[in-house]
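Sat 14:20. Reprocessing the chain from the morning session after the first attempt stalled halfway. Input below, unchanged.
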Amino acid sequence: MPCPHNEITIVQRSQRQSAVAAAAYQSGEKLFCEYDQQVKHYPEKRGIVHNEILLPPNAPQEYADRNTLWNAAEAVEKQWNSQLARRWVLTIPREIPPDQYAVLVREFCQKQFVSKGMIADFAIHDPHPPGHNPHAHVMLTMRAMDEHGKWLPKSRKVYDLDESGERIKLPSGRWKSHKEDTVDWNDQKYCEIWRHEWEVIQNRYLEANDRPERVDLRSYARQGLDIIPTVHEGAAVQQMEKRGIQTNIGNLNREIKAANRLMKSIRQLIQNLKG
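Finished this time. Tokens:
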């Protein structure tokens, strides 16, 4: 069965994270970070089978270079708590042919992100054994660009108006105002939209390959399923578990899986008694 997992996170400077480091990790390339003057390289990362950068028409062509792109994205952010990039991890259906992995992710990114003005940098990972856990890492820029490829501000000042359409003066003598995002990419609604569209395109590819399986990205509760969801295991936990080191998260997930198996057996027993 296709795995429905997908995860969205933000690369944040306040968490001592780096967009250049994230790009080096997902691409397997050695990149130089101008912000901290350090080389970012993760040679232990295996199974990277494809890398690609998708540019909107107004983006400078030099941003097709990964090192140039993410250093530029970091350089424009001046705050200690700046959001540097949006990251996605998308599980790819094992049931489709490997030569369609990149085609699937490219089509999704082009339609959902690049068409709206974002730059998408994606990598296909298919760790050993091949076809066991294919997935995509996608990094997206956080700022829009003007027609000349210059980064735009993330927000702009908007003056509040009274019922007559006039600006409102505060006791301090300043005009009352608020900030509005330049683009609405951070709107929570897009998380649901993008998840749904990822579900739709996966199912289209499964159908095109005459596969009976289908992906459902709704939560178990929304699907009406009495199943306990497992806890996400990060890269560090997964590496420890692969080396035979049991972790608290790994142990919790083993208990959850055992409980789900028990509940499934009980439901089957009840069904048999009814039948």
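Residues 219-224 have pLDDT under 50 and may be disordered.
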